[in-house]
Amino acid sequence: MTVPLLEAHELDLRFGAIRALDRVNLSLWPGEVLAIVGESGSGKSSLLHVLSGQGAPDAGRVLYRDPAGAQHDVHAMPAPHLRALHRSDWGFVHQNPRDALRMTVSAGGNVGERLMAQGARHYGDIREIATDWLRQVEIDPSRIDDLPRTFSGGMLQRLQIARTLATHPRLVFMDEPTGGLDVSVQARLLDLIRSLVSRLGLAVLLVTHDIAVARLLAGRIIVMRRGQVVETGLTDQVLDDPQHPYTQLLVSSVLQA
Amino acid sequence: MNGYNFAYLDEPTKRMIRRAILKAVSIPGHQVPFGAREMPLPYGWGTGGIQVTAAILGPEDVLKVIDQGADDTTNAVSIRRFFARTAGVETTTHTAEASVIQTRHRIPEMPLRADQILVYQVPLPEPLAKLEPSRAETRQMHALADYGLMHVKLYEDIARFGHVAISYDYPVMVNGRYLMSPSPIPAFDTPKMNRMAALQLFGAGREKRIYAVPPFTTVRPLDFEDHPFKLVRAPHACTLCGARDSYLDEVVTDDRGGRIFVCSDTDYCEGRRDAAPGEAA
Amino acid sequence: MAYVAVKGGERAIDAAHDWLARNRRGPVSVAEVGTDQIATQLGRAVDRVMAEGSCYDPALAALAIKQAQGDLIEAAFLLRAYRTTLPRFASSLPVETGAMHIRRRISAIYKDLPGGQMLGPTYDYTHRLLDFALEAESDLPPAPARPAPAAIEPTPRVLDLLREEGLMGAEEPGGHAPPGDLTREPLAFPAGRDLRLQSLARGDEGFLLALGYSTQRGYGNNHPFVGEIRMGDVAVEIEPPELGFPIEIGRITLTECEMVNQFAGSKTEPPQFTRGYGLTFGHGERKAMGMALVDRALRAAELGEDVTAPAQDIEFVLSHSDNIEATGFVEHLKLPHYVDFQSELETIRTMRRTAEAATPQEGEPA
């Protein structure tokens, strides 16, 4: 595959005097994990917001290539198309799983919803697929009828992942997927994400402030500071041999911690 | 009635309602907003149905009004009187003689004809309202045919109870495109809507929506392939006429748990009794 | 006992109406209340009915109150239903509250100001002690002679003083399109300010009072101050096409409240005050103030504030503010629902039979 799945060209975004995004370019290829790393205020969240079509940039374009190979300008897309995209070929894993899950609907219902929205009409089949996904995210399948409010934080996040992946998206946006979880729970979740991503051949745009997460999951990394991309490259290369002073600062502060 | 137009509403208002009805008929199952007026009856008591009836009624029409299937319940009486006074049209309790039937919560047992119109009173036109209270959001869902949420509700029922636990106002798919609330008719009545010969009009006054099912349109209750829609009915015969296929009202007859079951559709029951006297169960 | 199908709904309704009429009149030994008495001595009730009935006619409002035995929501309903039948022959020009013949005018944000603080006929500083002297009808001693006022002092709007200093945030000008008409088109969301204000103006006083109160207690607080309350008469003018100039067709009493609220500024705007606006028929300060608090709360999304509180939720507030819609739907629960309930009975009986068949009973072999 030689064509990028997602491309961003010269993205600019300002809030008054603050430049949230300053001439940002990036490309994401099918099946690769790209981490966007930076401190709070770096613009990484704004970037994810714009890339996923949820907020328009002041300048620049985001281009997406659909399964048929046709290219689309994400922000010129009619709202219904974007919405349909978010329910099929794209997925979005939120930092707080409660933002994406229906807390009053059972685990099985949460996983099955996107399938039903796409026309799945056989209860038994939907249940089987949901059971299988629960197993894949290491949730005991006997909990399929339990409500999410009985789940721990780590389980909720895994349920969100199952719900997101149920329609086999090719591109998944992840916003601090392990934020707010205990270190040991994080480790398990990261392992799971890594294995799912590689097994399913997902392309992932991962926003994180945690360099260790980037190192574990991402093949390529983008370092952001004050809305600008200050360094980009293969993760190991950038983290082992940072060129930009800011990246050096980031990397060294992690080692000291 | 002095000082009022035929059927109470002024002509511009009727024109506005008829335009909404035409739009509704053109897009089966889609809710059309309309500038509902305050009526002399309270919101929630049939003002939508009344406005639809008032807009389509002509001097030659014969009007039947039922509530819970009966002509004699107090609100049906009140509405029938309203039209008798403001339109002077002939009224009837016999389904077969009516050209316009306004109903609350039931479909008559006997199949309707192509020259009849059924006007439903609708309290909550939005089938997704109990799952998603924001109308701005549900409007998006209808526009995108994004009905996963309703299927999730049915899924949850089956997971919890073993079957769908909706006993009235059963959500239906109209013409394969729009999810619609049939109004709070018992689930038992839902199949009657499918490919009905009569025009079905729905009026919600307080929520200000009109929708329609044109004659011979497909109306399918939502279900799963392996959990198909099932009729629910008290497993008895009518005590008065012996019918085993009509929807029954349960009547408590004494304080020791005695109860009998009678047809909810009073005209249907009477008709059966007149045709075959002495055939009670 | 053989079952006989219930009949007689018509007779029951007629009997109920007879009894109602007799109740309304009360004992004939007591003088019948006159609509003129209601209009002149129960003016606050009349004002509320006009506001929520959305129709300015004190005589009709008084009649509605008499017919409804003092139930003000029922009276507002009568007035609204009557309003529906009235032909619409013109739209007035916007009323000029700046040119109001003021009977009461106060501001909480300045100690003194052009036009002065005029208390007017207010209950504000009364002591809430029941006055048993009122039980007996009496003639008041003649009012003390008051010197005729000199030329009416110009009374500029308080918020204009803040505007001159550049401290009031600009509001979206409504100039281009004519304002929407809530009585002709159904409300759709998102709703613009014109329709929101119309909806609030006819909204239930209690509901708006409670929501406004909730903002003060922290559910969407916006630090309100009363910039100005003014009550008095304004001219209502129309411009007939045949004449080409405006003519006054009458005067109505209005209460107007402008709240000054804080606005912390955002990444794009320096800090400024923002306005909440309330307007109601007659003398209705509680309503006008509640409305102003809620108007400002509903602007939260437009001003880039977090929408976290019920009073800030446009769809929630406007869908439930009309007490005539509310009372209709709440009270409709009294109508027969036995057909649907029958379905629920059958469903629950079936589910219980299934459940009982599945579990072995105590004392029986499994």
Describe what this molecule looks like in 3D.
The complex is a heterotrimer of chains A (257), B (281) and C (366). Chain A has one domain (6-256): P-loop containing nucleotide triphosphate hydrolases (Rossmann fold, 3-Layer(aba) Sandwich). Chain A is built from nine helices and ten strands. Chain A has helices at residues 44-51, 79-86, 107-117, 123-136, 153-165, 183-200, 211-217, 235-240, 245-256; strands at 6-15, 18-28, 33-37, 59-65, 71-73, 90-93, 171-175, 203-208, 220-225, 228-234. The mean pLDDT of chain A is 92. In chain B, the strands form three sheets. In chain B, strands 1-9-8-5-4-2-3 form a seven-stranded mixed beta sheet. Chain B has a three-stranded antiparallel beta sheet with strand order 7-6-10, with no helix packed on it. Chain B has helices at 11-26, 47-56, 74-87, 135-143, 148-161, 266-275; strands at residues 32-33, 62-67, 90-91, 100-104, 117-121, 172-174, 178-180, 199-204, 209-213, 219-221, 248-252, 259-263. The longest helix of chain B is centred in the N-terminal third of the chain and has 16 residues, at 11-26. Chain B is of the alpha/beta class and 281 residues long. Among the domains of chain C are: 16-85, no CATH class; 97-120 and 153-169 and 186-327, no CATH class. Helices cover 37% and strands 12% of the residues of chain C. Chain C contains twelve helices and four strands; from the N terminus they run αααααβαααβββαααα. In chain C, β2 and β3 (247-261) form a beta hairpin. The chains are: A alpha/beta (257), B alpha/beta (281), C alpha+beta (366).
